[in-house]
Amino acid sequence: MLELSAVCLRFGAKQVLHNISFSLQKGEFVGIIGPNGAGKSSLLRLIQGALSAQSGQILLKQRDISSFGTAELARTLAVVSQTTAPLFALTVEQVASMGLLPHKSWFELNSSYDRAQVKLALQKTGLAGKCSDVVDTLSGGELQRLYIARALVQQPALLLLDEPTNHLDVQYQHQILQLVKALGIPLLACLHDLNLAAMYCDKLLLLHQGRQVAFGSAAEVLQPELMTQVFGLPCEIALHPRLDKLQVTFMPASAERLC
Amino acid sequence: MLKRHYSLAMSVALLLLLLSMLLSLTLGSASLTLADIVSVLSGQPGVSPLADTIIWQIRLPRLVCAVLVGAGLAVSGAVLQNASRNPLADPYLFGLMAGAGLGATLVSVVLPPQLISLALGAFAGALFAVALVFTVCAGQRWRKVEMTLLAGVAVSFMLSAISSFILYFAEPFAANRVIFWLMGSLSRTDWHSVMLLAPVVVAVLLLALALRRQLDALLLSDESARTLGVNTARLRLILLLATALLTACIVAQCGGIAFVGLMIPHIVRHFFGVTSARLLLGCAVVGALFMIWVDNLARTVLPQQEIPLGVITSLVGSVFFLLIMRRQRL
């Protein structure tokens, strides 16, 4: 589905990404983790075509990503980024309908099939009852679900998520990740919370200062030495007894003072 | 905004537009009834040649121009507000008015008489101002909408200063001519003006309607629009050029008619909805309706004298502007 080979990115004199290589198969959820400034969002922007790689190759559905036109790319790949409410009072249905844009020509009107797609996306994201609500009135979690609904209307082959759980409380964090995982679309997401990443992702890509430190399953990537080296704090990693998922706990440098 | 509310608002606005157009044709120094108007327009025999001339050669072209100017300015304002995500954007950004003023000043004061018409001079001046703003904003900075707005303000002041300098040394008659022209009026319009304005207004409206989905996508954020396949920089360039051309044509024909492009989209959003298709069509109808009544007011309030359109629209618009500021706590 998605394959990166020795991808490098440079902003002026600054090398932002060095030799990133990984692949994402159909049905997989890959999480990109790492501290601030590691290059997570830059990598996501590179894959979505907003930035151009200095070298290396990005293949999407076995085709070089640079060979996609902007509309064609938007039909293949949808992005849910950190969201803001629109300037004017748009309704939930109007924002979700924006996902039809890459499929439409200049004067083409929405068909009954299009309207059904929008309705279905809103149902999947639990917003069917809020079609006519103004976006301003939604909670943070609902707003995030709305942007996921818009992405679903795009009918993408791959969904990119940039910090989808930022600024959300615990309940919404799990709700959003459960929702996207249940969609059955291959997912690539930048995640800050390592425990959420361990819980929901099939594979993790660990970045540090623009370099790929590790790529693999949570057990392969979430190693205490690696985490300490990347995040600069001692850490303990344990298997949750009931969830059978790894849990990362960082120790403050002066942990004894907390006791 | 539900579909039935939009349909109702549009039906009411269209009905009011039709009634206003008919009523406007009865207003003027020559007394003509609605029956006379209908007779003339339907080409019935027995109508006086004078009434026929007044309707076909004076009132109707002026009325059609009012419709085109109102629709054009309101549609331009709506496009610019959505494209820049700035609810206070107006077609007179980019220094268009100041450029037109400088063009008119040069034609009236500096160049030999009759060399170029005042309208053509104003048109060239308006395009010059736009070109200047676009040159300043070219390249990377062009992508930032705020830069375009700031460049428009700077160019506006610069060109106004040059005009004022020239007018300060000009003979009073020529200076008055330019100043009165800049205040805006439909009194100089004829079928020739209609032929010039109609294709541009229709073309820009159709272009904006064709790009309505892209305009809607811009309402969220540039990055969000790009993920939907919108080339935001190219879209803005196309829309800004189209609205600048339309406004330059209007200014050249009718002088300065400020605030229509700022005010009408806000009213339309309230009654018609905020998505671009509804907004653009609503602006075309309500803008036309507004301009018809501003012109009616301008030519009937004082006996034997016309008030410049810009005076009325600026008065109404500035009050409206203050209300928006108060509401949004800018």
Question: Could you characterize the architecture of this molecule?
Answer:
The complex is a heterodimer of chains A (259) and B (330). Chain A is α/β, with parallel strands linked by helices and 259 residues long. Helix content of chain A is 31%, strand content 27%. Chain A is built from nine helices and twelve strands. The longest helix of chain A is centred in the middle third of the chain and has 14 residues, at 140-153. Chain B has a single domain (3-328), classed as Orthogonal Bundle (ABC transporter involved in vitamin B12 uptake, BtuC). Helices cover 77% and strands 0% of the residues of chain B. Chain B is built from 14 helices and no strands. Chain B has helices at residues 3-26, 34-42, 49-84, 96-110, 118-137, 145-169, 172-182, 191-210, 212-218, 222-227, 232-254, 260-272, 276-300, 309-328. The longest helix of chain B is centred in the N-terminal third of the chain and has 36 residues, at 49-84. The radius of gyration of chain B is 20 Å and the shape is globular. The A-B interface holds A 48, 50, 69-75, 78-79, 81, 83-84, 86-91, 94-95, 98-102, 104, 106-107, 132, 154 and B 1-2, 85, 87, 209-211, 213-214, 216-217, 219-221, 223-224, 226-231, 269, 274-275.
Low-confidence stretches of chain A: none
| Biggest sheet architecture of chain A | 6 strands, mixed
CATH superfamily of chain B: ABC transporter involved in vitamin B12 uptake, BtuC
Distance between the termini of chain A: 48 Å
Distance between the termini of chain B: 25 Å
Tell me the overall shape of chain A.
Answer: globular
Approximate shape of chain B: globular
CATH fold title of chain B: ABC transporter involved in vitamin B12 uptake, BtuC
Low-confidence stretches of chain B: none
